Amino acid sequence: MQKFLLSALLTLPLLVHADGLPDLGDVSQEVVSPQMERQIGEQSMFQIRADRSYLDDPEVYDYLNRLGGRLVAYSSEPGQPFEFFAINDNAINAFAIPGGFVGVNTGLIQLAQNESELASVLGHEISHVTQHHYARMISGQRYDSLAALATVAVAILAARNNPEAATTAIVGAQAGTVQRQLNFTREHEKEADRIGLAILEKSGLDTRGMPSFFERMQKATQLVEGSTPSYLRTHPLTTERIADVDDRVQQIPFRLVPDSLDFQLIRARLIANQRMAQDAVAYFDSALGEKKFGNPVAQRYGLVLALLRNKQPQRATQEFATLHKQAPRHPTIEALRGQILRQERSNKDAIAFYRSALKEFPQHHALIYDYAEVLLEDRQYTEALKLLDQQVAINGNDAKLYDLQARAYTALGRHQEAHHVLAYNYILHGDLRGAIEQLELAKRAGNDYYQLSVIESELRQFREILAAYSKKK
Considering the domain boundaries, does residue 169 fall inside one? Predict the structure, then answer.
């Protein structure tokens, strides 16, 4: 198994003073360093991944990171690591966290009528990160312990998720002070608009997406009196801002940009998974029957998903056969094909399919997870571990991979290793105490000297971090 500390934890300082607090470097400096921004972001993500609203959907995750990565490549900091993720919430919201983390509510994805509108929001949020707006707002404050830095992360999450109630949700005077500084200023918003628009243009997307999305949000506000979208509360939208963006767009040559199939598929996926299954089937039947709206490939993809949820496997198989004839080769559709094969209880065919599909789409997470699941179901535990070890080496911050590894190790009777990787799964979900418990179980489950030395080292580190969080200031 992999012998390493998760990069998420490596961002937490490893040097420890005599008082037990990790060394954050000169954190009293006037400017918050990029390393500190990343630490704040990582700590925020521990909490976000632990929340039930975090959308653990590999298709949506992969799409947002493909689109986001395309935009980041044209930002002022193309080397800055970014992670894009979805929140399962109908509220219209998106937010950036220091260090390169960008969250988007499913309600906002559904509100966007084309890919350029969605990309305009991501470009705006990317610009908040690359312009270090959070760092500029909290610079000059003194954060001399990891616990204090974690308080900043809590303040940021509260400010992004519920601006009105943020101050009361935060414990401690310092956090309250920080929260009052977290609302972006007009200057920050205009700068993010300007730079986000430039990113949109360089990425080959339609710059009209930004003003059109702003206008749609304004209309949504007017239609529902007293129900301002969360995005407008955290990113105040003024007539001046809309006019400024519109003026800039008018100076850019018109470019007709069709939506990618990715965008259409993900929108259909959200409808299929978030509506009542029977309602979703009716919606897609109507869309395909009338042929008046939407991409027919995406609509049929959504119909197959809805039929599977509605426990209509026979019709789902029939509709997928039609879809497969119509659709181009696409990893999201291939992942659905794998689900259909698994529905037919044909592990042998499914294993052959996944092995072939991953040669064509080696980094598609839905295919990776499902292939590992099928191997586990077929009791090919060693083969499953081989696949999972390869993937962990590529991305050591994927909690799902550790969960699947633990299942394989348990089935093989390798309980020490099972508890060890479960500790990584727990830490990535923000459960530091749970991770320590798993390491304690791993310590008692075997006597391999090398394994025990690694476990002991990690136990010391995790306990020091927990002590830093828990220590009263």
Answer: yes
